[in-house]
Amino acid sequence: MFFKFTKKIVFVSLALSVVGCSTHSQQGMAQKSMSSETITAKETLYESTQNYSALISLYRDVLKAKEDPSIRYKLAKTYYQRGDSKSSLLYLTPLLNDNTKLATQAKILQIKNLIQLNNFQEAISVANELLLKSPNEGEVYNLRGIAYAQNGNLVNARNDINKAREFFINDNVAINNLAMLNIINGDFNNAVSLLLPQYLNGVKNSRLIHNLVFALVKNGDLDYAKDIIVKERLNTSPDDLINALKKTTHVSKGVTR
Length: 257
Fold this sequence. Notes:
Order of helices and strands: HHHHHHHHHHHHH
Mean pLDDT: 87
Low-confidence stretches: 1-34
Number of strands: 0
Oligomer: single chain
Number of helices: 13
Helix content: over 70%
């Protein structure tokens, strides 16, 4: 912020002072705008290349100069994306006690971090508190459903993920998570019936494809599984991958956050 200090000695000097400061203020604002544009440009570049280390350095430099809650949230989110949930929670803490929309997003990120740290019961507790204040947050139901699933409570998990769909969470996310519950429960046929239409409709994120291939193999649809493995280039030796999946008795819970 720029402050004008003028001395009322004579009218001419006053006029010169005001004009001079006005010009200086305009130059300063231009520099500030340029600085903001530079930050945005770097941010866009680093995000497009998933250069989380560079993003973290950028946000830390901005916060060293001036506290900015939105930048702090971005810093915490980037730490989470990099897999460093402990650092994410550290920088997130000052944002958790406000009653703003940003605080709601901060709590959602807190839940994601707790799940990533395998603190499932704490994640459920935070989600419960948040849903008391914001009962229409579909993403929170989805996250609580994930935490329930990881904790072995598949009934509550399914109820929450279906509730998340009622509040219009991304259908692809919800369907993948419901399919994953079927896989955990050994119901591979229903998992395929959920995932295959998504795949045929062009939804090809890696989690969905891996879950679909696993469910197909476990359901005995080996030719279909092999076709997808080849088409999506999942492995240079499709038969070896299929044999490995056939022997797999434990499935990692590849739910979508």
